[in-house]
Design brief:
It catalyses: 4-amino-5-aminomethyl-2-methylpyrimidine + H2O = 4-amino-5-hydroxymethyl-2-methylpyrimidine + NH4(+); thiamine + H2O = 5-(2-hydroxyethyl)-4-methylthiazole + 4-amino-5-hydroxymethyl-2-methylpyrimidine + H(+). Pathway: Cofactor biosynthesis; thiamine diphosphate biosynthesis. Its EC number is 3.5.99.2. By secondary structure, the protein is mainly alpha-helical. It has one domain (3-211): Heme oxygenase-like (Heme Oxygenase, Chain A, Up-down Bundle), CATH 1.20.910.10. It has helices at residues 3-19, 22-29, 34-61, 65-87, 89-92, 103-118, 121-145, 154-161, 163-181, 185-211. Helix 3 (34-61) runs parallel beside helix 6 and helix 6 (103-118) runs antiparallel to helix 10. The longest helix has 28 residues, at 34-61. The structure holds 4-amino-5-hydroxymethyl-2-methylpyrimidine (HMH). 4-amino-5-hydroxymethyl-2-methylpyrimidine (HMH) binds at residues 44, 47-48, 131, 135, 202, 205.
């Protein structure tokens, strides 16, 4: 079995929990309160900037020049999506863009950045994979369920269910499978564990948006 199949099996229970979350279910129904969606978009812009940096770090550490190019393009994609959020949703929803990262956003981006900088590069590639794969799976799930008419979130829903995003995801999965072939069993397990942690943090990010998470005390 390929590394990606094994890793997905290990993390699938988290994906199942994600699609059952109230944030996702209300997004599908179109009943998600606008303030929660706004909160999510603003945090996601902060997330995407750091995700782009993590991808650029991996690009710099990749062994093969093709992978340098692939992760550079992924990094560019994340930053472009981030600025698109600013150009569209920030205007539509009157978002100030002055928010500080929530604990969940900070935790997730710190995990991505520290793993990208310090872990074995194959493990770093596995750690960023949920950002692609979970979003595609969740995007496809939402797209398959939602009623197109009058859903205020249909523009967002279309972004991650599209063919263009699917191709990026397929490439990120292939690279991880190639990378895993040069790894020992123990290293492949470390890759799968990093992948599972990323999936867990995807869950936490949705959960924090639903709760409109704040710092327990006004520290920042
Ligand atoms: C939290 C999060 N994970 C993944 C993506 C998609 O790359 C996104 N926009 N936001």
């Amino acid at each position: 079995m390929s590394w990606s199949n094994t890793a997905w099996q290990q993390a699938e229970h988290i994906y199942q929990k994600i699609i059952a979350m109230p944030f996702i279910q209300e997004l599908i129904a179109g009943t998600l309160p606008q303030e929660k969606f706004k909160f999510y978009i603003e945090q996601d812009a902060l997330y995407l900037e750091q995700f782009g940096r993590a991808l650029a770090l991996i690009a710099g550490r990749a062994h093969q020049t093709q992978h340098v190019l692939d992760y550079t393009r992924f990094a560019e994609g994340a930053i472009v999506v981030e600025s698109t959020l600013h150009a569209s949703y920030f205007n539509t929803y009157n978002i100030s863009g002055l928010a500080k990262p929530t604990p969940a956003c900070h935790y997730y981006t710190s995990f991505l950045l520290s793993t990208a900088a310090l872990a074995q590069v194959e493990v770093a590639m596995a750690a960023v994979l949920p950002c692609f794969w979970i979003y595609q799976k969740v995007g496809d799930y939402i797209y398959g369920q939602h009623q197109v008419t009058n859903n205020p979130y249909s523009e967002w829903i279309d972004t991650y269910a599209g063919e263009e995003f699917a191709q990026l995801v397929a490439k990120a999965i292939d690279i991880c499978n190639d990378a895993a072939q040069n790894c020992t069993q123990q290293q492949q397990q470390a890759m799968a564990d990093a992948f599972e942690m990323g999936c867990q943090l995807e869950w936490l990010f949705w959960d924090s948006a639903w709760r409109m998470e704040t710092w327990a005390a006004k520290l920042i």
